[in-house]
Write a structure and sequence with these properties.
The chain is built from 3 helices and 7 strands, in the order H-E-E-E-H-H-E-E-E-E.
């Protein structure tokens, strides 16, 4: 907790005087806000840390804005349905994931039974992705 308090203090101090909020390299919601309080005629500001906004900001920075949809709760891989196989494969692989066709034109292909959290399986008919799943 002491490390978190120190980190919040550092962020607040680096924000400068007179600022209502401090942001960390992102146009998203502020991670640290300054709440003004008045007690007995003395005005003070207390930093309030938004952990959810901070983690979301760090996650976005780590995986890249264009790859967020691949992760649970981030939009879903269903947007690949309707794309041609090459475009869908390129989209998935540019994020460092694996694109695997398990069914082509109604014929089930031989695939491994291993589970991978960074793989998208697809069914393709006439070169168009008609169904996708993860693992």
């Amino acid at each position: 907790m002491k490390a978190l308090t120190s980190a919040v203090a550092l962020i607040v101090l680096s924000g400068g005087c007179g600022s209502d909020s401090v942001q960390l390299d992102s146009p998203q919601e502020p991670v640290v806000t300054l709440a003004a309080q008045t007690t007995a005629g003395v005005s003070t500001t207390t930093p309030q840390f938004d952990a959810r906004a901070f983690l979301d900001q760090e996650f976005t920075a780590a995986v890249g804005e264009h790859c967020l949809y691949l992760y649970p709760g981030r939009g879903g891989i269903q947007r690949l349905v309707g794309m041609d196989e090459t475009a869908a494969s390129t989209e998935v692989e540019r994020c460092g994931w694996v694109f695997r066709v398990y069914s082509r034109d109604g014929q089930t292909l031989t695939i491994t039974a291993d589970m991978r959290s960074h793989r998208v399986n697809a069914a393709v008919v006439d070169g168009v992705v008609i169904w996708v799943s993860k693992f």
